[in-house]
Amino acid sequence: MTDAAASPQIFRDSPHDRPPQLAWYASRLAIYGMLILWTVICLFPIYWTITTSFKMAPDVMKGNMVPWWDYTPKWLGWRSLGLSPDTITTESTVRAEFLGRFLNSTIISLTSSGLAVVLGSLAAYGLSRFSYRFGYMRNADISFFFLSQLILPPVVLALPFLVLYKELALLDTRIGLILLYTLTVLPIVIWIMRDQFAGIPAELEEAALVDGLSIWGAFATIILPIALPGMAAAFILSLVLTWNEYFFAALLTSTYSNTLPVMVASQTGSQGISWWSMAALSFAAILPLVIIGIVMERYIIKGMAAGAVK
Amino acid sequence: MVFGRAIVWGSAALLVGIAAAQTLDRTGTLDLGFANWRPTLYAYVLWAGCLCWGQVLVRGEQGKRALFVLPAVLFVVSLVVFPLIFGLIIAFSDWNLSSPTGRKFNGLDNLRQMWADPFYWNALRNMIWYMLAIIVEYAIAFGLALLLNSQIRARKFFRVAFLMPLMLSPVAVSWMIGKSMLEPRFGPLARLARFFGVENPSFFESPEMARLVIMALDAWTYIPFMMIMILAGLQAIPKEVQEASRVDGATAWRGFWEVTFPLMLPVSITAILIRIIFKLKLADIIINVTSGGPGGATDSVTSFIFREYRDRSNVGYGTMLAMVYLLLIVIFMTVLMKLVDRWMRPQY
Questions:
Q1: What is the pLDDT of residue A194?
Q2: Do residues B22 and B51 make contact, with C-beta atoms less than 8 angstroms apart?
Q3: Which end of chain A is more exposed for a tag (fewer CB within 10 A), N or C?
Q4: B302 vs A: CB within 8 A
């Protein structure tokens, strides 16, 4: 651009086409300023939680922020969880509880996301390829039936489920939560996967069918590998939602199958919170998803963008 | 073929049989000693399995096709439709789980109680405030998406950083920000407020302030969600369109309002609709930060019903409130979608 401006020109740029140096730098500065401002807004709470988990009471009172600069990090918070280097080998009831909740959360979120992806992908594939009639319901109606579940607020289901689960002896079990969580993320999975399958040309399976594969064979060998990234996106998005779910877990579990959010919430309620141990607990609860967010960012964005553009 | 029909009807008969036996057992006509309704559940699962298998046996190729959708349909129907019907029964009864009297049908009493319950109406009014906050969230999300879409370095870093709040559990966020950063004495945000000259920063004393803080917390978690949808939309706009508008002499400002923004309308509407749906479920943060206070100023419908059950174990009344809420949502969403549909149509 600058070359063109320096050389003798026939066509003169209009004033705002010429590279206006000062304005350009100003706009750069503004853009990066806003970007950095929002980054701070997004990341500061996480930073605050990490640093607080290494603080002692006076550090919290004085509002020290930077470790090794204005306070010396101590393992206080992590010791109360039984996860500091000196307590990691010894017996700890808090750690046992924490690990139990962690395991519950892991099992419940992985299983329900897996189940939702399997059920949802099959349904989405069927809906994108074949035409059905269940009574008066056609494909569009069935799709709408699935997606309309999104509108259903959890409160509506919560109390009936509470009573039903009591009768079925499913209260405070992992299975009970898994079933509900699968239900809540299923519409989202179908939403994403429908979009994925619609993008795969139907000629692919037609060729496979001519070659003598069955419908399910063609689905498993041809379509599945192509749709795998989409399924990963749906799976990870479901994982995020189910890992963080609090409402159903708070209502339907009490002692055995509590998830991590319930544990965090129960500590928050108690008076005289010790900041460092709450910070350690919160940070331990969000850490898995922070890692997933950093490593799998591509899939999460792909999943969320799936429904947007079309 | 015959075998297929046989297993479907056989398992159905088994299901009906067990359910009938359990009902008799429950009403006391027969004493079979069932501890819970698990046997009926197992019979139901068996029937569902047989139904799927039977499809293939009876209808062959058509059945194999139906098998793609059938499991999901069965799953959703049994987990939504059945509890909803059950919920309707509960909604019209006086049922306090902690009282020994059990369930009593009480007709429209719950509705009458709801009509006179100022806190429920208050919660509904709050939901309108929370809904209006979406406009601001949308504006911020759009701005951030534009920033990410401009020519910048380290785009991936900023994208990951901006995505982070969405990954955090609302409960942890409630503690990290709501309880600790906003703590009036030592919280960093309180210090910041004092630095800017606020005498006694308190975030949850006045109703308006508390509501604003809850809105901000919720916005903080969900802005990335809208931002990413809008960003996807921005990236799908061909570059030529914007270049063409520049060649025609439009300033960046006019180019945005007359080219980019109209092109983004469909994506924006999808993002806002989904955001509204998520907003209608807002509860976790409220339950954990303010538990509805001060004086119900921050209550959402969900958090209100949650406490109605937690504090009073009032299942019947709570379910009625939830059902009314569902009804309102369905009406609201239908009207909204109709309006959007009508408004969008001339564009195509």
A1: 86
A2: no
A3: N
A4: yes
